[in-house]
Amino acid sequence: MNIHEYQAKQVLKGYGAPVAEGVAIMSVGEAETAAKSLPGPLYVVKSQIHAGGRGKGKFKELSPDAKGGVRLAKSIEEVVAHATDMLGNTLVTKQTGPEGKQVNRLYIEDGADIERELYLSILVDRTVGQVAFVVSTEGGMDIEQVAHDTPEKIITVAIAPEKGVTAADVAKLNEALALSGDAAKDGESLFPILYKAFVEKDMALLEVNPLIVMKDGRLRVLDAKVSFDGNALFRHDDIKALRDESEEDSKEIEASKWDLAYVALDGNIGCMVNGAGLAMATMDIIKLYGAEPANFCDVGGGAGKEKVAAAFKIITADPAVKGILVNIFGGIMKCDVIAEGVIAAVKEVGLTVPLVVRLEGTNVELGKKIINESGLNVISADDLDDAAKKIVAAVQG
Ligand code: ADP
Ligand code: MG
C-alpha cells in the first residue's frame, strides 16, 4: 500500500526525522491560510499523487510551458495561484503512465535553502536477505539517469538484523554521502531513525529523494515515498487509515476485498490462475506466443465458487481485456468448483470476449463436463501450451 508524501513525512516526523513544516489542502480556498501558517518567505506547492517524478511532470490541461507538479512560490499570492493551477488537473509524470493522475491534494511546504541533493532509500534487498540502505550523492530528479549511466555512484549498505544500524554502518553511509560536520551528526541520528521506522511499520520501500544538506549544514528529508507490505497491514491500523483509495486501481481495490492477489497490467489477455508460480508461468507463456497479459491474478489455493466468480467479474470489467485464459490446477481446489464459479460469473455479467479454460487436477473430468454442458461459448484446452496458443490466436484472430 502506498501513501502520500505528506503522510509519509508525518510518519517519519513521529520517529524524529527532520522534515519541513507543511500543510495538506484539498481546495484552493485553504491555500492562503495554509501558506500564512508557514514561516515563508519561500514556499513550495507540491502535488500529492501516488507517483514520483512530479517536479518534471506536466499538467494535461495546462500549456506545455507551464511549470510542473512541484513549484516554488515566493509569496502567498503565488502559492494561491499555483494551487489554482494544479488542483483538479491531471499530472502526467514518468511514473503515472500517459493517462496521468488527477491532483486532488496539495502539500504546501516551507521552502528549504538547498546546498546539495542526496539520494537515500531503504528496501528489502533480496540478494543478501537483509534490509539495506541505497544511497548516492547524486540525488534529485535525475536519479534514474544516474542509476543507468553511472551505477558506481550508487552505494548499498546492508544492515544486519540482529545489530540494527551500527556505528560502522553510519560511518559508511556518511562517507558514501560525503557528509561532514553537522550534516554527519544529523546522519548519525537520522539513519537509525529511518531504519526503525522502516522495520516497525513493515515498510516495503522508503525513498527519500532528495535528502538535502541545507545551506546551514543540516540534513532534511525533502521528499518521501513510502510503500507498506500489504500482508502486514493488519497490525498497523494507523497506517491503514492513511489509505487513499482514489489513488488506487478500482479493480485492485475490489480484488483486495476478496483477498485475491491481483495486479493490473497493460496487455489484453485477462488471466485467472491459482498459485503465484502458475500465474507467472501463464503470463510468461502468453508473452512467448506474442501477446501480453492484462493482469496477474492468483485466486489462491482454496478459493470457493464466490471468490472465483468475483475474480472473473474483476477481469471482465476491464475494457482492455479482449480474451480470458482460465488456467487452474485443482489441488486443494476442485476443478468442478472452478467451473461452477466461472459459469455463475458469466451468467451474471455476460461474456463478450473469447474464453479459454484449461483445467487439470482434482475432479478435472467433472469440471470439464460442467463447462461443456453449460452452453457457454468456451474453448477448452488440454494443457498450458495449447491454452496459451488458443487464447493468443483468439485475441489476435
Ligand atoms: P518529485 O520527486 O516527485 O519530483 P520532490 O519532492 O522530490 O518531487 O520535488 C522535486 C524537487 O523540488 C526537489 O528535488 C527539490 O529540488 C525541489 N523541492 C521540493 N521540496 C522542496 C522544498 N520544501 N524546498 C525547496 N525545494 C524543494
Ligand atoms: Mg523526489
From TrEMBL:
Residues 9-237 form the ATP-grasp domain. Keywords: ATP-binding, Ligase, Magnesium, Metal-binding, Nucleotide-binding, Tricarboxylic acid cycle. Pfam families: ATP-grasp_2, Ligase_CoA. Its cofactor is Mg(2+). PROSITE patterns: ATP_GRASP, SUCCINYL_COA_LIG_3. It catalyses: GTP + succinate + CoA = succinyl-CoA + GDP + phosphate; (S)-malate + ATP + CoA = (S)-malyl-CoA + ADP + phosphate; succinate + ATP + CoA = succinyl-CoA + ADP + phosphate. Coiled coil: none annotated. Substrate binds at residues 274, 331-333. Binds 1 Mg(2+) ion per subunit. Heterotetramer of two alpha and two beta subunits. Belongs to the succinate/malate CoA ligase beta subunit family. This is Succinate--CoA ligase [ADP-forming] subunit beta. It comes from Aquibium carbonis. The lineage of its organism: Bacteria, Pseudomonadati, Pseudomonadota, Alphaproteobacteria, Hyphomicrobiales.
